[in-house]
Specification:
CATH architecture of the largest domain: Orthogonal Bundle
Distance between the termini: 59 Å
CATH class of the largest domain: Mainly Alpha
Strand content: under 5%
Order of helices and strands: HHHHHH
Structural class: mainly alpha
Helix content: 55-70%
CATH topology of the largest domain: Rna Polymerase Sigma Factor, Chain: A
Number of helices: 6
Number of strands: 0
CATH superfamily of the largest domain: RNA polymerase sigma factor, region 2, helix turn helix motif
Number of domains: 2
Length: 149
């Protein structure tokens, strides 16, 4: 083994595209930790990370079979870009409106506004204004969901 050179990613990709599907396992073993970690950093949830990781390799296989891999680039950055795009797609789909939901764990919108009030009336006006903003955001969210169906 001392005289052998390692097979490059591009060589393995080229072999896969010629029909040697077993070489994909070598590519996966070579890069799975880096890809999984990159996805986990974005998703911050193991189940979501597992789903996106699997979706990433399904997409990679699909793209390679359709000969859409540009051999001038490097394999790992290409896969990481696919994974990143899938993370963003999932984020947009699943967590789009989480930032406006008011739960016990999230701060009240009124607490995020500057506190320039000097009396109870000013505080009450600020709280009512915040409540209206949340109602309008909820209406916008519901209208957006209806229009996307």
């Amino acid at each position: 083994m001392a005289g052998q050179t390692a097979i490059t990613d591009n060589e393995l990709v080229h072999r896969f595209m010629k029909g040697e599907e077993f070489v994909l396992e070598q590519l996966l073993q070579r890069h799975q930790a880096r890809i999984y970690t990159s996805i986990f950093v974005l998703m911050k949830d193991r189940d979501d990370t597992d789903d996106v990781f699997q979706d990433t390799f399904c997409k990679v296989i699909e793209q390679l079979r359709q000969k859409k891999y540009d051999e001038r680039g490097k394999f790992l950055p290409w896969v990481l870009r696919i994974a990143h795009n899938l993370c963003m797609d999932r984020y947009r789909k699943d967590k789009k409106w989480d930032i406006i939901k008011n739960t016990e764990d999230t701060p009240n919108i009124a607490d995020l506004m500057p506190d320039n009030e000097h009396n109870a009336e000013d505080k009450m006006i600020k709280n009512e204004s915040c409540a209206l903003v949340l109602q309008y955001l909820d209406i916008l969210r519901k209208n957006s969901e209806k229009s996307s169906c």
